[in-house]
Amino acid sequence: MKRREEVRSSDFQEAEAIRQAQRGDANAFELLYRLHSSRVFALCLRMLKNTAEAEDLTQETFLTVSGGMRMVHCGGPVQGGPPELSGGGGRRR
Asked: Distance (Å, rounded) from C-alpha 30 to C-alpha 54?
């Protein structure tokens, strides 16, 4: 289990990556992809029960997010991963 200081540092780094990705930083978006893609894929696979379709939907999800990064409210880290990243629960301005 992470210590409170590690969690805060991790949350801050993720929030900063979101801000940088909103400004068009491809490296920051890649970091967010690496942090969340496995959870998004796992959710897609559970829902679709088909690996190829889950891979496609994961890619589509991140393409959608990358196109809408400037609209995503950066009120904190994307703890839940899939709901926010899939567009189902993210807060919009």
From this structure: 19
- Domain assignment of residue 57, given as a range: 4-69+78-84
CA 35 to CA 82: how far, in whole Å?
11
pLDDT at 82 > cutoff 60: no
Please say whether the dihedral angle defined by the alpha carbons of residues 80, 64, 69 and 90, taken in this order, is positive or negative: negative
Q: For the segment 32-49, what is each residue's pLDDT rounded down to a tens digit?
A: 999 999 999 999 999 999
In a domain, 91, yes or no: no
Contact 77, 14 (CB under 8 A): yes
H/E element holding 17? helix 4-22
92 is a domain residue: no
Q: What does the chain come to in residues? A: 93
Quick check: 24 and 88 in contact, CB under 8 A? no
In a domain, residue 51? The reply is: yes
Number of structural domains the chain divides into: 1
